[in-house]
Amino acid sequence: MTLEQIVERCKLDSAIAGIEFTIPVSINNRLKTTLGRCMYKRIVDYSQDSPRYSMIPTKIEISKKLFENGTDKSIIDVVDHEVCHYIATAITHQNHGHDAVFKRYCAMIGTLNDGMYDYTVEYKKDAEPQYKFDLYCSCCGKRLGGRYRHCALVDHPENYMTKCCSATIKVVQNF
After folding, report:
1. How far apart are CA 125 and CA 172, in angstroms?
2. DSSP annotation of 107
3. Strand boundaries in 94-149, DSSP class E
4. CA atoms of 70 and 64, how far apart (whole Å)
5. Distance between CA 23 and CA 79 in Å, rounded?
6. Is residue 16 helix, strand or coil?
7. Contacts of residue 44, Cβ cutoff 8 Å, sequence gap at least 6
8. What is the CA radius of gyration of the chain?
9. Are 153 and 136 in contact (CB under 8 A)?
10. What is the 3-state secondary structure of 23-77?
11. In what order do the strands lie in the sheet with 169-173?
12. Using CA atoms, how far apart are residues 33 and 82, in angstroms rounded to an integer?
């Protein structure tokens, strides 16, 4: 899936809600644990007796890892989710998180990603490793998980034992 196809998807989803999609979509290399995000600008109106705040969406960012390695379905799910944040904020000028207003727009464009839906991203078969460090049992070779950064487990695996074989943990670097 290309960036142009993602922008077209954003425009189609916004049209369903009756608004025009006007913000840029970019790929962000720094997003490691977040798959996508909708960025906002906070506007303060001092013309009333007390200040009133409103939110204006400024851009949507997609993780580079997802963009390069995710399946088209995974990318579409994340894009639809972020567009729902865009729609809710563009119409109401408030940040709704994953509340009922946000869920209403998710239902409107037909996505299940309402923040309560626990989805795992499907990566292409030849995708790069997801973690900087993969953890394995040194006895049977079973994959135990991964870590994004250095921690006590990664730095001193000899101090830990696996549940499967009561053996030490083997750490494999992916970078």
Report:
1. 19
2. H
3. 133-137, 143-147
4. 9
5. 13
6. helix
7. 51, 52, 53
8. 21
9. no
10. CCEEEECCCCCCCEEEEEEEEEECCCCCCEEEEEEEEEEEEHHHHHHECHHHHHH
11. 143-147, 133-137, 169-173
12. 15
Residues written for the chain: 175
Q: Name residue, tokens 């464009």.
A: 109
SS3 of 102, please?
helix
Return d(Cα 66, Cα 81) in angstroms, integer: 14
How far is CA 123 from each of CA 12, 23, 128, rounded to the nearest angstrom? 25, 27, 9
C-beta of residue 160 within 8 angstroms of C-beta of residue 144: no
Residue 112 and residue 102 in contact, taking contact as beta carbons nearer than 8 Å: no
Q: What is the pTM of this model?
A: 0.69
Residue 50 tokens read as: 């007390």
Digit-by-digit pLDDT tens for the chain (175 residues) are 899 999 999 999 999 999 999 999 999 999 887 889 999 999 998 888 888 889 999 999 999 988 988 888 889 989 999 999 999 999 999 988 888 899 899 999 988 765 544 445 666 666 555 778 889 999 999 888 888 888 999 999 999 999 889 999 999 988 6
CB 96 within 8 A of CB 24: no
User: In Å, what is the CA distance from 62 to each residue of 39, 77, 97, 118, 156?
Assistant: 11, 11, 18, 18, 34
